[in-house]
Design a protein that fits this description.
heterodimer; A: mainly alpha; two-stranded antiparallel sheet; 5 helices; B: alpha+beta; 5-stranded antiparallel beta sheet; 24 strands; elongated
Chain lengths: ~200, ~575
């Protein structure tokens, strides 16, 4: 099996044997040069640790930022809500009904006929007039009428003869007072009806 | 030696193969599991993951405000919250919690107490539509006091800062946040906007967003604002004057219209009775609409203005045309009379208008064929929608001229036998004030698209000439005689220092039950000022006054108050031109 391998060597001329021997290549013994391992490992570990710690810090920072964002957003919502309710309050104050009620409380009345001063020549345009009761405007709604079932009815009870004298006096006194009050209101109603009748002249 | 090596090699090969098979089996299990997780159950797991960490919140779109012509809010939206309680947590401390809640928010203490103690419930409303700041303050106070179980949830507030002012126009919203009535409903698509949403991962007990986590935001699109031609202050004043006029006359209902004569913009459109837009449920349903647009009535003598203007425009008559007015006028089988008893009168056309004579108007209208009178009245907008663009507006009724008999023409000439809505009639009379040009009234400033897809607003109004400028001027001069203290029917409508044109109306009213004239009346007054350069038109109508008043005594003072306010607010000085002195009699 190994025989054919020797054949070519056999053909090499004997003459050059020495040269051949010289020319034979041999492996140069390796030079063992060991690089220092410590700096490399240190570098890698530092990079690794630095990276991990950095990432951790970054993440924590982001997390903290998220907390801040949450709380700030909440604060913003609270403040926006406050602003909104204040603005609504302002709008309620600016409501013409509210302004008119305040003005009325201050004793103000609507002005009479409109009149103007022209500033260029100081001329008065229109006929100025003081506000009159006829110009007054009722700004509050009428109070709702009581349903008839709630309106108290005047009950007149006859006092029996047999009642004690002092008690009767007290009772009749109260009754006559009630009756006179009733008469008052009747006469008021009458006069109101009278007013209405006066204003009844129909015009188209 | 070589034999041993071969057997060694054989065992390692076997080991390799066994190992490979084992690894393949493990990997197949992983693959199968992976397929199961990612392929088959993916959605269920994704949903579970979402439930744990992903949160989706609706970013609500803010509903647009409705503003008046000066930008004052008539309806506005605010971020509101509802207060909800979990009775299983609150029942023990109900008294203390209710005390705090009732002290801060306008709710009934006992009502809250009952809700906090509701057995077998874990969810109870304590208060709805509370402004956000107030609701948060309550929850904060409860937290500080150490009570649990009360929380807030979103609940947008629609507020109408001026209460009943323009409520008939604005309409209102339901408790669920849907528009129910009026412009809120009509322009819902414009106002409502589109809600957005945000999806993000949360962690921790506070629900903070995870940085670098999944985050997906669709921004909400807020609704647009709507600007009306209404002037809030004028609207308020008009409503109060109208209320006083209706209640003072013991009337059933009433309407008032204020128009800018030149542009047709509606400065105020008042109805009485009306409602508080913040609490619509407190008013009966019949008061929630717009009577001034939906209800029709016979205009009565105010229509004489239109008849006279048409006659002057057609060149048939002049303000000085002499008309002999008999005490009674027999027409077909009917007798036409005037509201006051008189013998034979010798009135000019001006006098007929000033004294509001039915007989005089009928005789004057005899100059017209039915077709001519119908043509003029139709061009004045009678029997057709006013063009304000509100669905449901009543068309009114102007009978077709071919069906007129003599008595129809007679009554139509003085405003009986036709029906109108208040805005329609105001726009018709305004044509006289606006140099003979009828401008369609508008309620929306600029333009806006209704839910029905129609574009309405002051930018898209159309106008048409009805009568010549000369006829309009002469008619206005005739109308000035109405407010004349000696000759006119409405001296109470006159404004000191100004030239005021107007016309009273007292019409028989068709009752709802019998469909006939039931003895009740509609009284009205339409007028404009300054008469020689009109700026505003005011029309006041009171239905069924019980005090026996007419258009002059009920509508006149109300007109004067509103017009005075307008002239002062918009700083319109008197023109200073002398009033015409047209003869009333001859």
């Amino acid at each position: 099996m190994s025989t054919p391998l020797y054949q070519p060597r056999a053909r090499i001329p004997r003459l050059a044997e020495a040269a051949v021997e010289r020319a034979r290549l041999t492996v140069v013994p390796g030079r063992a040069t060991k690089a220092a391992r410590v700096p490399f490992i240190t570098l890698v570990s530092l990079l690794l640790i630095g990276g991990v710690v950095g990432l951790l810090l970054f993440n924590t920072h982001m997390q903290q930022g998220s907390f801040v964002v949450s709380s700030m957003e909440e604060q913003a919502a609270v403040l926006a809500g406050k602003e909104e309710s204040l603005r609504m309050q302002l709008h309620r104050m600016r409501d013409p009904q509210h302004v008119a009620e305040r003005a009325k409380k201050l004793g103000m009345v609507p002005a009479g006929s409109p009149a103007f001063i022209r500033l260029s020549d100081g001329k008065v345009l229109g006929r100025p007039a003081a506000g009159e009761p006829a110009d007054a405007l009722r700004i509050e709604p009428l109070p709702p009428g009581k349903p008839s079932s709630v309106r108290p009815r005047l009950v007149i009870a006859e006092v029996p003869e047999a009642t004690k004298k002092d008690k009767r006096e007290r009772d009749t006194g109260a009754r006559s007072e009630a009756t006179s009050r009733d008469q008052d209101s009747t006469s008021r109603t009458k006069s109101r009806n009278h007013d209405r009748a006066q204003g009844a002249g129909r015009t188209p | 030696m070589s034999r041993g090596a071969r057997s060694l090699r054989g065992t390692s090969l076997l080991r390799l193969r066994v190992g490979l098979i084992l690894i393949a089996m493990v990997v197949s299990v992983f693959a199968a599991r992976l397929f199961q997780l990612q392929g088959i159950d993916a959605k269920a797991y994704a949903a579970r993951a979402e439930a744990v960490g992903l949160q989706t919140v609706t970013l609500p779109a803010t509903r647009g405000a409705i503003r008046d012509r000066n930008g004052e809010p008539l309806a506005e939206s605010a971020d509101g919250l509802m207060l909800v309680a979990d009775p299983s947590l609150t029942a023990d401390d109900a008294q203390e919690i209710a005390k705090i809640v009732a002290a801060r928010i306008d709710v009934d203490y006992f009502d809250v107490l009952e809700r906090l103690r509701k057995p077998d419930s874990r969810f109870q409303y304590l208060a709805r539509r509370v402004p956000a700041a107030e609701a948060r303050a309550v929850v904060e106070e409860l937290d500080d006091a150490g009570f649990e179980g009360v929380d807030t949830e979103r609940d947008p507030v629609r507020s109408y800062p001026a209460g009943d002012v323009a409520a008939n126009i604005l309409g209102f919203m339901g408790a669920d946040g849907n528009a129910l009535q009026g412009f809120e409903l009509l322009f819902d698509e414009v106002l409502s906007g589109k809600d957005g949403s945000a999806t993000y991962e949360t962690g921790g007990s506070g629900g903070q967003r995870l940085p670098l986590g999944e985050n997906n935001v669709v921004e909400p699109v807020d609704g647009s604002d709507l600007t009306l031609t209404i002037d809030r202050d004028v609207q308020w004043y008009t409503q109060r004057v109208l209320r006083q006029a209706v209640q003072g006359a013991g009337g059933e209902s009433g309407a008032a219209v204020v128009l800018d004569s030149r542009t047709g913009e509606v400065l105020a459109l008042a109805d009485h009775p009306t409602f508080d837009a913040n609490a619509p449920t407190l008013s009966p349903e019949r008061d929630l609409g717009m009577r001034s647009l939906f209800d029709v009535y016979e205009p009565g003598s105010v229509e004489k203005v239109l008849t006279a203007a048409a006659l002057v425009d057609a060149g048939k008559l002049t303000p000085d045309t002499r008309i002999t007015v008999p005490a009674k006028l027999h027409r077909q089988d009917r007798v036409i009379g005037d509201y006051w008893d008189h013998g034979r009168l010798r009135l000019t056309l001006t006098g007929v208008i000033a004294k509001s004579s039915n007989i005089g108007t009928v005789l004057a209208a005899d100059e017209f064929t039915p077709k001519e009178l119908y043509g003029y009245l139709a061009r004045f907008g009678l029997g057709a929608k006013s063009g304000v663009g509100i669905p449901g507006e009543a068309r009114g009724l102007l009978p077709w001229w071919k069906n007129w008999s003599q008595i129809n023409q007679d009554t139509i000439s003085f405003g009986q036998g036709v029906s109108v809505n208040a805005l329609q009639m105001a726009a018709a009379v305004n044509a006289v004030a606006n140099d003979g040009v009828l401008v369609e009234p508008s309620l929306v400033k600029g333009r806006a698209t209704t839910s029905q897809g129609a574009t309405v607003g002051s930018d898209v109004v159309s106008s048409r000439r009805v009568i010549s400028p000369r006829a309009a001027r002469l008619t206005a001069e005739m109308m000035e005689a109405v407010t004349d203290p000696e000759e006119g029917t409405a001296p109470s409508a006159a404004i000191e220092g100004y030239r005021v044109a107007g016309k009273t109306g007292t019409a028989q009213r068709v009752g709802e039950e019998c469909g006939c004239y039931d003895g009740t009346f509609t009284v009205s007054f339409a007028g404009f000022a300054p008469a020689d350069d009109p700026r505003f038109l005011v029309y006041v109508v009171v239905q069924d006054p019980k005090n026996g008043g007419g258009g002059g005594s009920v509508g006149g003072p109300a007109f004067r108050k509103i017009m005075t306010y307008l002239l002062r607010k918009y700083a319109v000085p008197p023109t200073g031109a002398p009033a015409p002195d047209n003869p009333v009699e001859w």
